[in-house]
Specification:
CATH class: Mainly Beta
Number of domains: 1
InterPro entries: F420H2_bilvrd_red/Heme_oxyg, Pyridox_Oxase_N, Split_barrel_FMN-bd
CATH architecture: Roll
Keywords: Oxidoreductase
CATH superfamily: Electron Transport, Fmn-binding Protein, Chain A
Number of strands: 8
Number of helices: 3
Oligomer: single chain
Structural class: alpha+beta
GO cellular component, one term: cytosol
Protein name: PPOX class probable F420-dependent enzyme
Pfam family, one: PNPOx_N
Strand content: 35-45%
């Protein structure tokens, strides 16, 4: 990457393995979801979420700006909460309505955050369940800033 002094893939510690990024996606306590307002201005909000089935899952009030942005323009960016070992996911958000996957998400959310939300918490009329499927993921480790930047791309569909 010219201008940043990023080393070729065979120098430094080398590219990060996918399990490194997945671990951070799973372990992050908060995630920042960035979306686009109807007038084109950016919008970012922190959420609790879980990395489940190779996607980031979270919930949102159907009255929230975040929900309205993502249902209008599904393209979004989600970041983990660690600036020293960040993982940045670009993808498309989709509202999940199938009760089976919603129950899996709720169980994972309750386990991760030591909560006891009942299924009614994710009543789709009040709180939507959203899933972001990655198109690309970027990560780096600031302990090897010039040698670790890694990007993964995922096919659509």
């Amino acid at each position: 990457m010219p201008g940043y002094g990023v080393l070729p893939a065979d120098q430094g510690r080398g590219l990060l393995p996918w399990f490194w990024a997945e671990r951070r996606l799973a372990d992050s306590h908060e995630y920042w979801v960035s979306s686009v307002r109807p007038d084109g201005r950016p919008h970012a909000m922190p959420v609790w979420g879980v990395w489940l089935r190779r996607s980031l899952w979270f919930s949102s009030s159907v009255r929230s700006r975040k929900y309205r942005n993502l249902t209008g323009r599904p393209a979004c960016t989600v970041t983990t909460d660690d600036a020293h070992q960040p993982v940045v996911l670009d993808g498309d958000a989709a509202v999940v309505t199938d009760p089976g996957p919603i129950a899996l998400f709720l169980a994972a959310l309750n386990e991760k955050y030591a909560t006891a939300y009942a299924p009614e918490f994710l009543d789709p009329a009040v709180n939507a369940t959203l899933r972001v499927v990655p198109r690309s993921v970027f990560a780096l480790d600031d302990a090897d800033f010039t040698g670790s930047p890694t990007r993964w791309s995922f096919p659509r569909g």
